[in-house]
UniProtKB/TrEMBL annotation:
Name the record gives this protein: Adenine deaminase
Species assigned in the record: Roseibaca calidilacus
One GO process term, biological-process aspect: adenine catabolic process
Domain Amidohydrolase-related: 64-345
Pfam families named in the record: Adenine_deam_C, Amidohydro_1
Family: Belongs to the metallo-dependent hydrolases superfamily. Adenine deaminase family.
Length: 562
């Protein structure tokens, strides 16, 4: 009798479960502010623009109601907490739908990692959608903990959380028709396929779009984003902890383009969420930059829903899922009340959730390393160096003369040249690769992590070999995470025992430990605002221009190990 009940309530013949009274509703289509109650019954909006009775009535006089926000692309693992803590962290900020790609945990634990997210999504307050990770591993130039082919992904497709195929990172494999890539594209043809094509343009971009890919979150300039919009891609404006593209793309977000643009965070940690916010931060920042407020809210709601085929949300309208955010001030975007699927987001809602046991414990199986393992042999002074560009995951491919001494090219803090190393941690081959990175500003010690996109081997940066070895070995002892070491002792650490990626503690505890980690890193001279996620991205060989994996330094433009 659910359908009949909702119709009866909509006509005012029976009371609703919940009525929101006194607020105006911002229409995502016309931009009008509509008076009248909003009636919610059985998790759906059934009435608006009229008076309704309800079992519970909430007075929101003077406020504005907008649809719940939709994060169109993110990796929950990058929040460093489980899906349950992520839910508790961002749902009160108005995020009612999160479209995640669990390829971080999938690169460690394979299909079991994706199934963990699928099971967890059945019990969260917010609606977590779990797209299927298309690149496990992301390339052939790294050692991951698992590999998923087209058949393995098809076996996961029937879960109700699945929309389609997550970001297709191996764009060279698409345009050059790698058989494994083609098998996945054929398997998901006609459905939703997320894109990932940094700096791709011209005929290569045409080829990538012709493969049936529908979205793109890697555009870092308005010019790049404009071409991608013109070629039919929905552009997702990204503002993560490292990848900060919002300022560059803001001029492109207008009432004309808003139906084809969305918002996403990709990788955002509890430090930034606590200190700045999540999608709410993006919304108020874009409005403060001069973007049309309706265009911004459309991108965060209705445009996002339509881009991903979620026809049941994105508007406050009868028949839609009751995802609603109450705001005292549209420009300030700080929620006073959030409703998700008809449920008020509050402590009781989180306490009632069923918690699924985590997977991928004890996943760090790296060999014990010695200080000598961090030497970097070479005879010629000319040396490739990864150049950090703060606020971007794109890196420079620098060539710098570094003279060998006794067969070793040593770090040179005076020139901001630190050792970077990747240590295979899945227990498969024991690879150790070393190189150089510029941009951390480190003058002493070392930092290390098991968060290293997307293979999640140990990645370490430092200027002292003893401290590099100490930090790397400590990661095995704590089941993964982050470590800062200096002078033969550990200054700060954050254990991440779930796949070496996520804590089992609360997001408040993780935030507190990240504050201590950031302070410890700065005590080494580190100048980057977010050194740990920056550390993770220098190991990702699908982002131009120079990266490092356990195979060695990777020229991404040539897509080969050098």
């Amino acid at each position: 009798m659910g359908l009949e009940d909702r119709i009866a309530v909509a006509r005012g013949e029976a009371p609703a479960d919940l009525v929101l009274r006194g607020a105006e509703t911002l229409c995502m289509v016309t931009g009008a502010r509509l008076a009248g109650d909003v009636a919610i019954h059985q998790g759906q909006i059934v009435g608006m623009g009229a008076e309704y009775d309800g079992a519970r009535v909430i007075d929101l006089t003077g406020q504005v109601l907008v649809p719940g926000f939709i994060d169109t692309h993110l990796h929950i693992e990058s929040s460093l907490v489980t899906p349950y803590e992520f839910d508790r962290c961002v749902a009160p900020r108005g995020v009612t739908t999160a479209i995640c790609d669990p390829h971080e945990i999938a690169n460690v634990a394979g299909a079991d990692g994706i199934r963990y997210f699928q099971r967890a999504s059945e019990h969260t307050v917010m609606d977590i959608r779990v797209n299927l990770s298309s690149c496990v591993p992301s390339t052939h130039m790294e050692t991951a903990g698992a590999a998923l082919d087209a058949q393995a992904l098809l076996a996961l497709r029937d879960h109700p959380s699945v929309i389609g195929l997550a970001e297709f990172m191996n764009f060279p494999g698409v345009i050059h028709r790698d058989p494994g890539c083609m098998a996945k594209l054929h398997a998901f043809a006609g459905g939703h396929i997320d894109g990932h094509a940094p700096l791709l343009s011209g005929r290569d971009l045409n080829a990538y779009c012709a493969a049936g890919i529908r979205t793109e979150h890697e555009a870092t300039s308005a010019e790049e984003a404009r071409e991608k919009l013109q070629k039919g891609l929905r552009v997702l404006i990204r503002e993560g902890s490292v990848s900060k593209d919002m300022v560059a793309l803001a001029p492109l977000l207008t009432p004309t383009t808003a139906p084809y643009m969305c918002l996403c965070t990709d990788d955002r940690n509890p430090l930034d969420i606590a200190e700045h916010g999540h999608l709410d931060h993006m919304i108020r920042s874009l409005i403060a930059m001069g973007c049309d407020a309706l265009a911004v809210y459309r991108a965060a709601t209705l445009s996002a829903a339509e881009a991903f085929g979620l026809k049941d949300r994105g508007q406050i309208a009868p028949g839609k899922r009751a995802d609603i955010v109450a705001l005292p001030d549209l420009a300030d975007c700080r929620a006073s009340l959030v409703i998700c699927g008809g449920q008020v987001v509050e402590g009781a809602a989180f306490a009632a959730r069923q918690v699924v046991a985590p997977v991928a414990r004890d996943s760090v199986r790296a060999p014990k390393v010695q200080p000598s393992d961090f030497r970097h042999a070479g005879n010629a002074p000319d040396t490739p160096v990864i150049g950090i560009l703060e606020g971007k995951i794109i890196t420079e491919h620098l060539r710098i003369d570094i003279a060998p001494e006794g067969g070793d090219k040593r770090p040179d803090p005076a020139r901001d040249l630190a050792r970077v190393a990747v240590i295979e941690r899945h227990g498969k081959n024991g690879n150790i690769a070393t190189g150089f990175v510029r941009g951390f500003g480190m003058g002493q010690g070392a930092i290390a992590a098991t968060v290293a996109h997307d293979h999640h081997n140990i990645v370490a940066v430092g200027v002292e070999y003893d401290d590099l070895a100490l930090a790397a070995n400590r990661l095995s002892e704590i089941e993964g995470g982050f470590v800062v070491a200096q002078g033969g002792r550990v200054l700060a650490e954050l254990p991440l025992p779930v796949a070496g990626l996520m804590s089992l503690d609360s997001y408040e505890d993780v935030h507190a430990r990240l504050v201590a980690l950031r302070a410890a890193a700065k005590s080494l001279g580190v100048t980057l605002e977010e050194p740990f996620l920056q550390l993770a991205f220098i190991a990702l060989p699908v982002i131009p221009h120079l990266k490092i994996t356990d195979y060695g330094m990777v020229d991404v433009d040539r897509f080969e190990v050098i």
